[in-house]
Amino acid sequence: MEILNKCVGCGNCVVFCPKKAIKTYGVAIVDNDKCVNCGICAKYCPIDAIVID
C-alpha cells in the first residue's frame, strides 16, 4: 500500500482499518508489519490518496 502526497490526514483510513495499521501525524502513516493490503482504507479515502499494490 502507498499513501500519496496528496493525503490531508483526515483520518478516515485510521477509523476503518481493521488491523489498526494506520496512524495520522498530519498525514497518514502505514505500519507495513500490520497492514494486510485489504484495501478497506482506500475505499474510505475521500480524496483517493491511498493506492493498493
UniProtKB/TrEMBL annotation:
Family matches, as Gene3D superfamilies: 3.30.70.20
Record-linked InterPro entries: 4Fe4S_Fe-S-bd, 4Fe4S_Fe_S_CS, PSI_iron-sulfur_center
Keywords, sorted A to Z: 4Fe-4S, Iron, Iron-sulfur, Metal-binding
Domain 4Fe-4S ferredoxin-type: from-to ranges: 1-23, 26-53
One Pfam family per UniProt: Fer4_21
Domain of life: Archaea
One Gene Ontology term of the molecular function aspect: metal ion binding
PANTHER family, per database record: PHOTOSYSTEM I IRON-SULFUR CENTER, PHOTOSYSTEM I IRON-SULFUR CENTER-RELATED
UniProt protein name: Ferredoxin
Source organism of the structure: Methanocaldococcus lauensis
